[in-house]
Amino acid sequence: MAAAMVSSAERAVLEEEFKWLLQEEVHAVLKQLQDILKEASHRFALPVGGSEGAAKQESFVLSVAGMDQVKGVLTLQGDALCQAIQDARNHVNQAIYLLMNRDVNYHFKTGSEVLKLMDAVMLQLSRARNRLTTPATLTLPEIASSGLTKMFSPALPPDILVNFYINLNKLCLTLYQLHVLQPSTTKNFKPAGGSILHNPGAMFEFGNQRYEVSHVHKMECVVPWLNDALVFFTVSLQLCQQLKDKISVFSSYWNYKPH
Amino acid sequence: MRVSIPAVAVWGRIAPSHSITAIMITDDQQTIVTGSQEGQICLWDLSSELKISSKEILFGHTASVTCLAKAREFEKQPYVVSATENGEMCVWNVTSGLCIENTKLPYRHTAIYYYHCSFRMTGEGWLLCFGEYQDVLIIDAKTLGVLHTLSSQSSDWINCMCIVHSARIQEDSLVAVSVTGVLKAWDLSSSLTSIQERQNVCEKESKSLGCTNCRAVRFCTYTERLLLVVSSICWQVYDYCDFSLLCTEFCKSGQCFAGGEVLAAYRLIIWTEDGYSYIYQLLNSGLSKSIYPADGKVLKETVYPHLLCFTDVKENKSFPFVMGFMNERKEPFYKILFSGEASGRITLWHVPDVPASTFDGSPQEIPISTTWTLQDNFNKAHSMAEGIIDHLCDSKDGIENAVVTSSVYIPSLDKLVCGCENGEIFITPGLETARARLLENVSLKGNLPHKVLNGHSSRVTCLLYPHGNSVRFDPSWLLSGGQDSTVICWDIFTGKILHRFSLQSGPVTELLRSPENCKLQYHSVVCCVCSDHSVAVLHLQKKVCLLHARKHLFPVKKIKFDPMEGLLIVGCEDDSVYVWEIETGTLERHETGEIAKAILSSIGDSEYLVVDSLHPVSQESKRNKNVQYKSSSSYKRGMISYNLTQTEKSSDKVMDNSLIQQPFTVLPVKPKWNNANFHVLLFDLEKLVDLLLSYQPCGLKSSNSFHNYDTLERAKSTTEKRALTLKRNKTAGFTLSVDGQVDTVYANQVNRDSNTIRPLEESGGIKRQKKMKSSRKTKMQPSGNIDVNITTDTAKLLLSCLLPWGVDKEIDDLCVGQLDILRLQCPVAFGLVSNERHLSLMLPGWKCTDGGVLEEHTLSNLFSKRVLDLSNKYLAATEGRTGERDGTVDNVYGTKGAEIIFFLLSRIVLINRVFNMPSADTSQIESLQQPESVHNKWQNMEAAISSFPSFYGELPRNKSRRHSSDFGNASLLKLICCWSDQSIKIIEAMQAVLLAEVQRTMTTLRKTAVCREPLATVENGNVSVLKHDKSSNSANFQDVEDAPDRCVLEESESPDDMKAHPWISKVCSCKVC
């Protein structure tokens, strides 16, 4: 590791090893990464061609944990259910594109080149993962004005708000029952901030009308392929980091390689 | 008001790495702008012969740059916008290098297009952006606020976009292709109002193209019919009228198309990810038939591409390439194909106006016109690219290796500690080192006192002087970490090794101090991060390693040292958390996901030791805000650390106060990807002038009094402000003898060599006022080594750097002979720290900027040709009005070089002030001509400037004619304000004024060799002279025609005089008499 301490013979061996790492090992890892990510990307099923009829359908039954009061049945056309999945899919595809550009024919010359590529890939992967693990915090007016509430046909009754989101491997559907706050009310109006899940009693103003959440129903269902995707992300991230670590071991040689 | 600090960069032999991620050429074809993965923007000069030369590097982003675009009509304002991976956006003036506007939005842009519709739009235009979010975002080009989004039916990320100006249908549209290959078109010009009113704007058309990974979409403005769509596997031409496909061309195997542009009617240029480009002619034999949309598919054979030319980068290849094409039809502009590489190389091809294939019909290769890297400039200007202590330790490897691999500056000792590639550590006095490096005098180099510490067997990777921020540590301790995985604790005074910790964990990447509120047993503890992601807790006093936590799989992002519970909490980059018990060395908990987040968020930002694996958090480096600024912004990448921005914000206030405590600071900068360590010398102008004032012996006593009564006035109105200046002085350990009211403080001087305890809050200074009260009498001052010489040397060094050497030999001789300002060894790379978060530094290539002002061998420090014009303008502007001033000027100039230096310096400070005034104020000055509104405005301006002693500090020299001097200043201020609006660099202005003033000094010196006496009267009877002034002023007023200035003068002067009396007598008693 310490360049100055090793003998010249040892140094030659180390350099040979580094060369092997750049020319063989890196490509092997990149191939492995690509395979894993392609597998992950298939889960997101990008509708190539966009011929409307061929989009795959998927139904989900959502339920309140342990209770049978409210049940949701969702039928998906394509995959554009919610932005989080769309974003995750796009991030994965960008990572794949980055890797595709350096196929076996590409000759890595420096370690830092590999590190930069890994950084770029890891950035996309961690963003993809974060999109699934961290649901967006929305304010109630944001939910009210979002497309989710509007996409129902027939339209939802005006006192109902709906929000979908992904939390780890679960698809969550939240249903807010509202009641209108009369202007004469003595209640102290205090608009609620952004949150993943709002509690009963949260108040907000939308379209010159004040509302209060009276009931909240949260339904969820496990989407198995989301779990797979998350596992793939974690594994790929670890692979990337391991490759970075291997390269770093030889860091003292970077300077000897011309750019 | 903004704060800006002049800086001088001392580059090393290795250029900082600049992996180009975005590149553009400005509309005037004179500047290339590149953005890098490291987060910097680099400006390159492009000559009319297509020669490239690096000009300036701009620091300010904290993450990789994703795109660049022009942000205004370029002829009017040379502004460029940059966006980064973490959502930051900056608008830069590429002429002056200043950041005009910046923001941080939760959007990551892939590309930005400037759109301005002059007749229907108010404001400065829009930035149409797309990226890792749905659809198209419209951002105001001036404020960088989000105006609106263009929405669509099936919202998705946009991959590429183009603005279609069609003269035929008088409508601008926006054509974009989404990641799923859906082409969408929005009306732009007809939806201007609905966008401004934030109504929903949906796409006008939408069509699936059936190809993913679209890289570019371009509209042919020559035919107004063809639409070019480039995807990674093929490029296609569509008919824009009905979107029928006209032709498809697939790429060779192993290549990916990356972009394309329309060269002319039926002529296209397409480039690839690996740096090739191809020029095609579309043979349009059957195009007329394709008007029938129904037959579109049948007729797609009717247009087919013929390859005319190609370009190749040959060797030097490094992924990925970012390419672009600049299509200028106007003479003398060129058609340029340009590319930037990850290695930092820029390549240009001059594409002929009519590209043609060879005679036998095979494609012709277009040769490379220019190829250039930052390192080329560093090699060329090797005298400028010499490291700060290169003359002490010449490396055996030649230019292959940077010599200095890590360094730290200790302000309290004025010591610069540099760790080298070969394991040696050099300790030198900071200012002396800078002088030896920059100035011509050879004896400085030979006599530079230095100490060498030998202990590491290979590269020194990090250094820490723990006492710097925390008095718990012994002032003699210096820590160094090396490539050889050892941490050595040195005695900085004797150079002895106190202890050597062998960690066996790969190179040491970082050394961190433990937090303040420690139990006694953890008092002298530091944390050490190694490259195998392990964290070692070292006890310096006991000389033991308390814990070596080795289980982390990912790089360490955050460390919290909890001394109360005896825990070490380590947060890694994959958002997992490890909790270690220090006593037993066991891993208590390992958490991921939600729990990890909860643990990390429960820790206050201030308690972190590390923000990311590379850099200490701001609270730890409060000492100098710039350290924090730099470390966080310049070489960190790829982290969307919310914490970071938080701390940055919170520490901004802190920064303000503890800006720089000494007039001179060395700031070491360590880049991320290579070892190109460089140093930035910072000069605090105001501080410098303050100090000079206090040191002026008899000669400038008059200025003292002036300065003082100004301070007093301020003291009365705003104690706050006064406390600030006072405080700054104190922390720096300088003796400020001006202010009578603080005599008590300075009475208790401390013996010089005891490195006296300086309580932390003094450098923190959030509640500085309170502390001032409590600490005023009790706190000691480490006054030690600071004396007049250091201050004057600093001032002279700054002037040396600024003076336009080589322009006029006489001036040079005067400066060297009379003023004792030493000539520069080589041109310096000037820079400017502005707004506490932006730094621009000139690169060694800047000399070539003006096409070789002078021959190779003569030293020339002229920043630009413009400086000469400015200097003449300045002379013209001030000369006419103050013709009779010469008399007084003589006196001052005749007396002493020191005073001239002081005068020149105060001019620089004045310019600095004016340039930093908010632009609102500047515009007010322009309207100064209107008599009725003048009064307030002038006062406003006055307020901005008068809070500042040195502005008055320079007055005394014309004391007997104060009126004329103020009058001259008014026009001077107007002139300078004018300059600052014309994107003239602050240093250009400084140099121009210096040149003019030195020239004037020279002429007066020539005229009168003997100095007259009036100054003496000023010295001896402050009060009486002031009175006299008053009367003479009022007499003079009769002659003045310019009414506004006069009334302002009267207004501002009379109360001053009243206040001055008692106070001046006070000063007289303690200082002069």
Automatic annotation (TrEMBL), chain A:
Its main location: cytoplasm. It comes from the Eukaryota. GO terms for cellular component: nuclear envelope; RAVE complex; synaptic vesicle. It is found in: Cytoplasmic vesicle, Secretory vesicle, Synaptic vesicle. Belongs to the rogdi family. InterPro entries: RAVE2/Rogdi. It comes from Gallus gallus. This is Protein rogdi homolog. GO terms for biological process: brain development; neurogenesis. Coiled coil: none annotated. Signal peptide: none annotated. It holds the Pfam family Rogdi_lz.
UniProtKB/TrEMBL annotation, chain B:
WD repeats lie at residues 13-54, 58-102, 453-500, 549-590. It comes from Gallus gallus (Chicken). Residues 867-1022, 1023-1055 form the WDR72-like alpha-solenoid domain. Residues 757-785 are annotated as: Disordered. InterPro entries: WD40/YVTN_repeat-like_dom_sf, WD40_repeat_CS, WD40_repeat_dom_sf, WD40_rpt, WDR72-like, WDR72_alpha-sol. GO terms for biological process: protein localization to plasma membrane. Residues 767-779 have a biased composition (Basic residues). The keyword Transport does not apply. The keyword Repeat applies. Coiled coil: none annotated. Keywords: Phosphoprotein, Repeat, WD repeat. This is WD repeat domain 72. One of its GO terms (cellular component) is cytoplasm. Pfam families: WD40, WDR72_alpha-sol. Gene3D superfamilies: YVTN repeat-like/Quinoprotein amine dehydrogenase.
